[in-house]
Amino acid sequence: MDLLWGLGLGLILFSFLWLNLLSLPGNWLMLGVLALLAWLGPEGRITWGFVGLMGAAAVLGEILELAGQLIGGKRGGASGAGNFGGIVGSVAGAILLAPFALGLGSLAGALLGAWVGCFAVERLRQESHQRAAQAAWGAFWGRSFGLVGKSAVGATIIVMSISRFVA
Fold it and tell me: Count H helices, E strands: the chain?
């Protein structure tokens, strides 16, 4: 029976993992499922302490995502305003392109939005086309690495959660 619980939990959490790549709160939905299991699930498998630990991991995922974009933009030469433009552009792009390609448009939108937002702000700051593009590429790659980091945290949450049933 524990194996069935573990497999079912794994399938549910894995489906939420993909939401991270769509700039949606996949790790937080995983945490919600774990809290529900701590409350209603089999006794002793998912505890509130474990939910708290996974909550800390979800916070780490958010920090990695934000830090990735900020550091990437900064390494590309973006100003603070350019980095802010990249973050706003990333959110706007994810929302605007979400309806396309079965939802995968939000991934492209987040990455493209980071580039466009940073580029636009740097150009408004009177930076040259070349410097603005370099900063924008930094924001793009930083956003990419941030999404990978956040998704890696999500994968860790899945493995640790399933192991509570399979071990």
Answer: 6, 0
Are 120 and 85 in contact by the 8 Å Cβ rule? The answer is yes
Q: Are 61 and 154 in contact (CB under 8 A)?
A: yes
Dump pLDDT digits (tens) for 113-125: 999 999 999 999 9
Enter the tokens of residue 122. 């740097």
Q: Which among 138, 132, 130, 129 has a CA at the least distance from the CA of 87?
A: 138
pTM: 0.85
The dihedral region occupied by 157, where left means phi > 0, alpha psi between -120 and 50, and beta the remainder, is alpha
- Other residues' Cβ atoms within 10 Å of the Cβ of residue 62: 16
Whole-angstrom Cα distance, residue 138 to residue 76? 4
